[in-house]
# Entry
Amino acid sequence: MAKSFDELPVLSVSELTRDIRALVESNMRFVWLEGEVSNCMQARSGHLYLTLKDDNAQISAVVWRTSLQRLQFDVQDGLHVIAGGPVQVYPPRGTYQLIVERMIPQGVGPLELAFRQLQEKLEREGLFAPERKRSIPTFPQRIALITSPAGAAVRDILQVLQRRWPKVDVVILPVAVQGEFAAREIANALRIVHQIPGVDVVIAGRGGGSLEDLWSFNEEVVARAIAACRVPVISAVGHEVDVTIADLVADRRALTPSEAAELAVPIQAEVERSLHEISARLRNALLDRVRHARTRLESFANRPVLKDPLRPIRENEERLDQLGDRLQRAMAHRMERIRSRLVAAADSLEALSPLKVLSRGFSITRSVQEQRIVRSIDDISVGDQIETQLSDGRIVSRVESVQ
# Structure
């Protein structure tokens, strides 16, 4: 016989959700899930919300801010991971989600992944660009050493500096080089190093160790502090095979702390030897110039103009006398030619002179009134006064008749 609705075990939504929550959370207090990250979104609160999925299903997940800060890499869409944590039910939406407390990237370790992500990020910003690298001073007067005062690196660096360039002043800024607060201490030291008067170069580093031991030099805060440092920085972290983000950002990378000291200062004995060689070359060059100058001076002294300085003057005087004589003879010859031409011209003028014609019996008659030469009987009338020009004088007469 069918039961009535009043007799059925009816649950409210809250009661069902409560039972599911108790069942799920009691049996799935910590599970490991493998999947691909998608729909990754970080809220303003700092929590990270995402979806883990495979080919057939998906589940929502959240990484609380405190857990996210412990991750050493950035969680991104497409990243294949193994995530661990409890499964919890969220009653207001009736959904369940994984509370991620641990996350391991697949195919590469978390530190290696964090290294690659930060390297790509800083490279895009240009922090590794060669053109922003500064040169290390050749003769530094003061070096700031950022490292652990208890490590072997500081002893190695000081020994090399003392052996190569004893007069250099070294200021040690003690910091932790591994551990939770090491990166922050290193960054703070890099930020204040320019406040120390006279610092020419900074050496930041430590001795060898595992990737975890060296990790403080792979932190972004240290990389940006190196890039912002006003003094050239030499990075010396670990051994030759160890490459950190600090090495890539620094102005110069040293393979070991000892090499950092070698890069920072020259060898005093070599500098002195070079100075002696330069001094010898300068001395020889000066002697060569003196010998060359003496040779030229002697050649000048043997020239006739210096042996008998008045000789050119006398030769020029003689040349001037010769030119003067030639000029006088040329002028006399020219004057004679001019004189002959003048005589010939005078004779020609004399032959053409009217007085010469008149002396041969000719005369010139003019009208006294008009002073015109009388060339025809039509030019005068009876009674006109006329003037007759002879070779030795004039005759004035009156016309009595015209025939």
Remarks:
- The radius of gyration is 60 Å.
